[in-house]
Design brief:
This protein has eleven helices and nine strands. It is globular. The structure holds flavin-adenine dinucleotide. The site of flavin-adenine dinucleotide has 23 residues, from strand 1, strand 3, helix 10 and helix 11.
Length: about 400
């Protein structure tokens, strides 16, 4: 069978959405998805590998992302959570780093303001956040507080008259090398509760240094943040962020969207692997001719479809106002485990070419590692689920 005999773009089952979950969206949502998909193909996909290789964020993409108006699809634009999830997966499929940039600005940062700021604060801040005139970051993790950050937040907030003074350090904070604002979670020395503050990154005493030499999400600019006597006016203390329970309201939703990223990551791996299998010839035939290669593609597809099915149902529950923390935790743990298997099969299917980013799979493979660890590691999400089904917490 010659390469020319296969039209790889026009096979009926060329897409990883094998069970056509997209058909569950409304006509308006499908139109919007098509519009964003076209944007991603035009503006994001062509620059993704180069930005990743150089570990540089494409700043000139921000006004274009603002024009296509992606921030807050559910609360502001009235789309379903199912649509928001599929959209996030689709953005990840085009480039995981840009999806993560949006996940931080939209999900974590905007989500904190929407969920935890007063109406007056939201009116003052959200217009510039929605229009991306101000870019945000989310500062929770610390150098010494990762999985245990709920009880282990060391950054402090001290109230002094009409302002607060923040001191401490944060690690891994996405977008923070260039963001205008960052929500900092800090422990109030008065009552020991974790509270949220909107910090202007130009404030004296605030510093952000890029974390270099990452093997994953290289385009995302993650920073180590230092806070030395950073003064925050009282108005910039998020009115409804008064304990870690409040922070968790944001994380429950973003955990769900990271699980959708695991779906997008598998769709991307399947796209690359399937195309390679029909284009690459060995022993005088496309490698897709070999049964072992077909088996690998089908394993990748099965993982992708099962992850997507779980996420579709969870988003439907979220739309019905019924999704629980532990369901998001199981979804994140399950889909990221399937993702890790899928990208590893994909990486191997490309042989040597699977380890160079030029063929895209190496980027997809490496980016999966960050998704596996952030927004609660695989172990922590497993333990959250285990606690729910046994009534016993093994987290400590
Ligand atoms: C690319 C990237 C982007 C990120 N962006 C942000 C951001 O924008 N804002 C932000 O606040 N944070 C961010 N994070 C931080 C992320 O949420 C943390 O990395 C994550 O919560 C894990 O914390 P840690 O890295 O300190 O690992 P640790 O907590 O030190 O864990 C190390 C290992 O120990 C395991 N472990 C820990 N406790 C237990 C336990 N009780 N039982 C079993 N195993 C356990 C973990 O599962 C893990 O395997 C980002 C991280 C990455 C990698």
């Amino acid at each position: 069978m010659s390469k020319a005999a296969i039209d790889v773009n026009n096979l009926p089952y060329a897409d990883g959405d094998f069970f056509a979950f997209e058909q569950l969206l409304s006509a308006k949502e499908r139109d919007r998805l098509a519009e964003v998909r076209e944007f991603l193909a035009r503006e994001v996909k062509p620059i993704a590998v180069d930005c990743w290789n150089r570990a540089e964020f494409p700043m000139d993409l921000i006004p274009k992302l603002a024009d296509i108006d992606l921030v807050s699809p559910v609360k502001r634009q009235g789309y379903s959570n199912l649509f928001a999830g599929i959209l996030h997966a689709e953005t990840t499929r085009a480039d995981t780093s840009i999806a993560t940039f949006m996940g931080v600005h939209d999900g974590l940062f905007t989500g904190s303001i929407e969920a935890l700021a007063s109406e007056e604060q939201q009116e003052a801040w959200l217009p510039e956040i929605y229009s991306m005139k101000k870019i945000g970051a989310f500062g929770l993790t610390e150098p010494l507080g990762g999985s245990d950050v709920a009880g282990g937040t060391r950054t402090t907030a001290r109230r002094e008259g009409d302002h607060w003074v923040l001191n401490g350090a944060k690690r891994w904070i996405g977008n923070a090398t260039f963001s205008d604002w960052v929500v900092i979670y800090a422990r109030d020395v008065e009552d020991n509760q974790v509270k949220g503050f909107l910090v202007d990154t130009k404030t004296e005493g605030y510093g952000a240094t890029k974390i270099e030499n990452k093997i994953s999400l290289r385009t995302v600019q993650n920073a180590d943040i230092t806070l030395e006597n950073v003064v925050v006016p009282d108005f910039f203390k998020l009115a409804n962020a008064n304990s870690f329970r409040d922070t968790n309201k944001v994380l429950k939703v973003t955990r769900l969207s990271v699980a959708w990223q695991a779906v997008g990551q598998q769709l991307a791996a399947f796209d690359v692997a399937r195309r390679y299998a029909v284009e690459r010839s060995q022993f005088g035939r496309p490698i897709a001719f070999f049964q072992l290669v077909q088996n690998q593609l089908v394993q990748m597809l099965g993982n992708t479809v099962s992850s997507m099915g779980m996420m579709v149902r969870l988003s439907q529950l979220e739309d019905a106002g019924q999704a629980k923390d532990e369901q998001s935790a199981l979804a994140k743990a399950f889909t990221t485990a399937r993702m890790r298997e899928t990208v590893a099969i994909g990486r191997s299917l490309l042989g040597g070419n699977g380890i160079v980013s030029d063929y895209e799979m190496a980027k997809v493979f490496s980016d999966a590692e960050a998704i596996y660890s952030y927004e609660g590691t695989h172990e922590i999400n497993t333990l959250v689920t285990g606690r729910a089904i046994t009534g016993i917490s093994a987290i400590v």
